[in-house]
Specification:
By secondary structure, this protein is an alpha+beta fold. The chain contains eight helices and four strands.
């Protein structure tokens, strides 16, 4: 029997300590902080790729929730146990159902262009940055026996190169901006939530630092002499990292990587 059937929280979240899970958990924490009267959730951390071979995401009970056998998945118990899978889809669902004040999204009637831009950056991450970033980790953890072969090395280099390209696109977009979407310098939205966990996991993808992407990483000006950071001296990654709900979401479930 799926665990969520005994839950009392309106939302039940199945996840694991991966960037894909973190994208959704960051969103859940942000919406929970913004709308505490309507958004609350419980979590079940699935055991995946454990040394003893556990892969709960492939067990029959979980396949009833997500036939694709992947995380994350969210069950809305206030909507007849409606299931939402895929991290980007979870963020969009949260925005459409709960973001009544448009804290993290835009009005689809009055802000059509902004809504389109938000969706474009959502799909940019979901169809580009996320899969290529994940490929490097997959190659290095599931195909170790091929590490010395040319094909493995070429595949890794291709995936690293693609990830670097996507990070470069983000870096270009953030020139003169604080966030990805919105007029002027932009505002923090689900588009930023959807990208953040993969940027945070850049080392997974063979990119040890963000030094080559100055609009993503922290930029210090005169504040470095005071050993503090001002809002103006922070680039996108540090701005997002400083948000309490983002910090909470990046620890759902507790960090093991």
């Amino acid at each position: 029997m799926p665990t969520h059937t005994t839950s009392t929280a309106p939302l039940f979240f199945y996840t694991a300590t991966t960037p894909s899970g973190r994208r959704a958990s960051v969103g859940l924490e942000e919406f929970k902080a913004a709308y505490p009267d309507t958004v609350n959730y419980e979590t079940r951390a699935l055991k995946m790729y454990t040394p003893d071979g556990q892969n709960e995401q492939k067990e029959d009970w979980y396949l009833q929730i997500n036939p694709n056998g992947r995380i994350p998945a969210m069950v809305d118990r206030t909507a007849d146990d409606f299931v939402v899978v895929e991290s980007a889809a979870i963020l969009l669902y949260l925005a459409r159902k709960f973001d009544t004040e448009r804290n993290f999204s835009f009005d689809p009637v009055k802000e059509v262009k902004e809504c389109s831009e938000l969706e474009q950056w959502i799909f940019f991450a979901h169809g580009g940055l996320a899969p290529t970033s994940g490929l490097v980790w997959i190659f290095n953890n599931f195909f170790k026996q091929y590490k010395d072969e040319k094909m493995h090395g070429a595949a890794c280099e291709w995936a690293i190169g693609q990830t670097r390209t996507y990070l470069g696109v983000l870096n270009t977009r953030l020139e003169g901006r604080d966030y990805l979407v919105g007029q002027g310098r932009g505002k923090f939205t689900i588009a930023d939530m959807n990208v953040y966990a993969w940027v945070a996991a850049a080392s997974w993808s063979g990119i040890p630092t963000l030094d080559e992407f100055p609009n993503l990483k922290v930029l210090l000006d005169e504040a470095q002499f005071k050993m503090t950071l001002t809002r103006r001296s922070q680039a996108w990654f540090e701005c997002v990292s400083a948000r309490p709900a983002v910090q909470a979401g990046m620890n759902v479930p507790p960090n093991t990587w």
